[in-house]
Amino acid sequence: MITWDILAAPLLSLLIGYAFGATPFGFLLTRLAGLGDVRQIGSGNIGATNVLRTGRKSLAAATLLLDALKGAAAVLLARWLWPGTNAPEIAAIGAFLGHLYPVWLGFKGGKGAATLMGVLTALVWPVGLVYGGAWIALFALTRYASVASMGAAIAASVAAFAWAGLRDVALFAGFALLLIWKHRGNLARLRAGTEPKVGAKKD
Question: Which of 21, 37, 54, 146 could link 99 by a cystine bridge, Cβ 3.0 to 4.6 Å?
Fold first, then answer.
């Protein structure tokens, strides 16, 4: 028989994760800075890369940091509340989905790169390091944030075979697929040769 005691940890950890993840820091910070709605510029995304298009590097850096921290915080809180359970993984799912599909913004959120960094590091920190290292390397080589994000997510999924169990391998692969899906517009622009590089001057 399924009881509340059985359902409490997974349901609450999912809700906690979603609440953390759905906090749209890029949207909030640009509004508080008097820069209007970040969804009305550039790609319309609420992540750090699009916040950078406001010309405020400090806001972009804060968005990146806070988006990563909210993912990590959700996982760590679930681990503290329900040690020895799968609550941290469920909270990670909630945080990632919350960032991608925040209820406060009509379920139109970010693409998940920074939040994924946070949840991966909190769940299995060596995989988080691989993700971060791969992102930096790919960005340095290409100057495309989209390529760095997708490549890093794939690298983390592969790295999970070395440092995590099959459950986490499947979870991280699912995260990577969702992140790539959210970047489908970027993929189309990359194929067309119209994807802008970060820091490139407009014609």
Answer: 21
